[in-house]
Amino acid sequence: MGTTTIFTPDFLQQLLAATGKSTAGMFWQFVTMFWSAYWPWILLILAVTIVYELLTWNGRWHYNSRNGFSPGFNRLVGAGFFALYSGIFFAFFHFVFGDNIYLEQVWPYIIHALAFPLTWITLRKIGFWVY
What we know:
Number of strands: 0
Largest sheet: none
Shape: globular
Mean pLDDT: 81
Order of helices and strands: HHHH
Strand content: under 5%
Helix content: 55-70%
């Protein structure tokens, strides 16, 4: 009997294709993967991050963007809103069109085309992004 390994080149390629490419994207992917088991810890980490950013808002502890928050926190908020809107659109399309959205390659592009500008509009309108 031979042994097989799960870490085949095809498996690793699919695994890397599914991961976020930015630190904020990887963080939100981690949140969605591990939410059910570690939600108290995830909320604690988010709360500590938000409190730290509010305490150092427009301070000199780290570099601040024009809105007073660090660039990393701005990316975290932007990626969070993008993930939220993507999830809402994905759930809507799944409800309307059923499981067929998993088989067609066009749906992710439509979801991104809707979620990306909506994220920008939302964060501009509430005054978080001042650029």
